[in-house]
Amino acid sequence: MPVSQEYLMQHTTKHVLLFIDLHTNIATTIAKLSLLPKKNIKQVTLFLEYYQHHFFVHHFLPSSLQTKLHQQWKVQLEQHIKPLLSWCTQHQYHYQIIYGEHAHSLEVLIDFIQSQHVDLYIKPTSYHEQKANLLNHNDIHLLNMCRVPFFICDTSTSEGEPKKNSQPTLNVLICVDPLPDNDMFSFDSTLIEYAESYFNKLPVQFHIVHTYSPLPETIILETDLVTEYKNHTKAMLQQRQEALIKLQQQFSIIKHSKCYMLQGIPDCVIPKLVNELYIDICLLGYHPHSHWHQAIHGNTTKKLIEKMQCDLLIKPNQNHKITTN
Prior knowledge:
Blueprint: H1 5-11, E1 15-20, H2 26-33, E2 43-50, H3 55-60, H4 63-80, H5 82-90, E3 94-101, H6 105-116, E4 120-124, H7 137-146, E5 150-153, E6 170-175, H8 190-198, E7 204-212, H9 223-250, E8 258-263, H10 266-277, E9 281-286, H11 291-297, H12 300-307, E10 311-316
Parallel strand pairs: 1-2, 1-4, 2-3, 4-5, 6-7, 6-9, 7-8, 9-10
Antiparallel strand pairs: 5-10
């Protein structure tokens, strides 16, 4: 199914917001930025996070030294990002720099994204960060509030010069889910449509995966119901496979891709598939939840991120409404 020009205009990446602090591996980050569709980038904003209200600084240094130290941090950040500025100049991108103090960076980011119409938010992982802490409470809140696509560059595996990808094409895994209207046999094509515009004209090999977790047979207490439940599960799986094939045939970019129907918990089976296929980027959907739902059930996307060994492109659901109280 060809993508209309109007749709491409809606999903074209124009304004990129890049999060940077003193721990960011700049060399590897620049290498990761090469994965972006350059022809669609018009504006790059560098968000430089610094620490002002550090306990030691605030309690043990006089105000005059505090001011000098804050200025020194900003100078170090500006020196730190010089290669990034050269990269922007080389590709003729318009760029600007904004600053955010660590304690208030979330408010600054949300206000900027909403007011400046950011199309893609990029956060490189720092070498000292753990995956489990990457998508923290602030990032979840930002996704809920702004619904902006979120690209997580995994730079934690390289402390020196970035390793060049020997493969001529990118391996991209798209995780598809059923439509949210309780129709378990029709898949949501939003991520595929986004991938079709985002990776337009880039050398990409797509892979499609859907996971399902049927209830265990042990919950069936009546023996005569076990066979009926097995038949029901088998029929449901067949219908999902047919729906996945139908979805694949609708889009030219994935028509020759391999589809995977995996049984199991997503955050267990998908990371294993990522490693087996040497995936470079995994495209995930994100469905915001209320704080109550988050506390009780957790979030599948967050659990996946903690175990993934690749870059992640998270596309929030634009139409899902939540209560943030």
